[in-house]
Amino acid sequence: MAGPGSDLPDHPDWLWRNPEPKRSYDVIVIGAGGHGLATAYYLAKNHGITNVAVLERGWLAGGNMARNTTIIRSNYLWDESAGIYEHALKLWEGLEEDLDYPILFSQRGVVNLAHSLQDVRDSVRRVEANRLNGVDAEWLDPQQVKEVCPIVNVSPDVRYPVLGGTYQPRAGIAKHDYVAWGFARAADALGVDLIQHCEVTGLDIAGGRITGVQTTRGRIAAGKVAMAAAGHSSVVARMAGIDLPVQSHPLQALVSELLEPVHPTVVMSNAVHVYVSQAHKGELVMGAGIDSYNGYGQRGAFHIIERQMSAALELFPAFARAHVLRTWGGIVDVTPDASPIVGLTPVDELYVNCGWGTGGFKATPGVGWCYAHTIAHGEPHPLNAPFSLDRFTTGALVDEHGAAAVAH
Amino acid sequence: MMLIPCPWCGPREEAEFHYGGQAHVSYPADPAALSDADWARYLFFRDNPKGPFAERWNHSASCRRWFNVIRDTVTNEILAVYPAGQPKPVIA
């Protein structure tokens, strides 16, 4: 006899196992966001290190990986940044095939608008720097901006008129959840244990070397431990007695209801604090600047949203009848030079990846690749060597406030 | 949005204020004597606790005065407000 629900289809296959934690691993990654999952995947794939656990206090990819605006680009100013972000973009270009999983990667281009003479000078300089580094970049005058994105208001009669913009045609967006699931599925298939609802509460150190972690599900021994905790990096590093030069801030974003396709690219404006694209489903996706104060609450203030909306409306008058469907916040870890920290720590075999601030999503495959190399070899990959923790003592900062700033 | 109690003007909405980061960070008495590591700590490292945090706010849209607040960075609950220059109150 058929019971209730017997006519419903079977549950689809799970994309990964949900194993119990083992007593010990060669490598433990703290944080199952995009960076942690990509790191575990490349540890297994590139370095043959498969006795790996990724520990997650909440659910898989439920932090910033679920909250970002999915923008992918590599048009940063300095050589160091171009190196790691362009490496990431090249990996994005082959990621669907590599993971054998759809991630809706769409190279629809990114326009970064300039609204003042100084913006124009900085933008043209950045275009030239990008080209010297092999990163595709063009300078667009206002009419060319209009050709790339017809709904942008390029009238001179607005408070902050569009004086032009930089354009990276290879940039774009991807479906953030699918990216996380693709990496999780592929890492799991290579033997990595993804362990959700397992919060790290302590780091065990003996003789200056990490030996394991304390968790809400007991102690787990480890040969190496790699932090990938984004907004909570300060909290985790503190367990090892390490202070990080990062400050955690709320960062908000929002979506509209589903609309007809009107926005063919991604438009970002540092000066008026908004960045906009249209998701595959049809929502307009808009990001704001960070809330000014330190916060771990995963929410921000509404006046930030109001300012972001007023900026968006001046740039895109067509949005006047759109509605905000929902807003949300994540916690971003911001460094003094707007560049990340990826590398060694004062504790042997304890590694740090943090400080990606408002822009970590775009780096996901690139940082996973380089961080896995760093962990496997005990020394930084050449592409993340400039992003060491000790650059704040040596003074070798990588100042990306111009290319990152609010719209990372 | 937070309602922040300015010691001089009373409770006002957050948009009237400017944030000043961690409180009680004093300029080094003898900067030239600092090592590179100590100078880096003064310049680039600030506390980033999840929980109560002593921080500075400026009431920039009104009396323009600086003051200190202890705020829980998870709940945004304001636990103490006190003038700049006074020692940090003990929070139970």
Describe the structure concisely for a colleague.
Chain A is α/β, with parallel strands linked by helices and 408 residues long.
Query: Total helix count of chain A?
Result: 10
List SSEs of chain B in N-to-C order: EEEHEEE
Low-confidence stretches of chain A: none
What is the H/E order of chain A? EHEEHHEHEHEEHEEEEHEEEEHEEEHH
Q: Mean pLDDT of chain A, rounded to whole units?
A: 95
Give the largest interface pair and sizes. Answer: A-B, 23 and 26 residues
Rough outline of chain A:
globular
Helix content bin of chain A: 25-40%
Number of domains of chain A: 2
User: How many E strands of chain A?
Assistant: 18
- Supply the helix-strand structural class of chain B: mainly beta
Q: How much of the residues of chain B is beta strand, in percent?
A: 35-45%
How is the largest sheet of chain B built, in terms of strand order? 3-4-5-6
What is the overall shape of chain B? globular
Largest sheet data of chain B: 4 strands, antiparallel
Please identify the structural class of chain A as seen in this structure. alpha/beta
Oligomer: heterodimer
Largest sheet of chain A: 8 strands, mixed
Low-confidence stretches of chain B: none
Count up the helices of chain B: 1
Rg of chain B, rounded, reads 15 Å
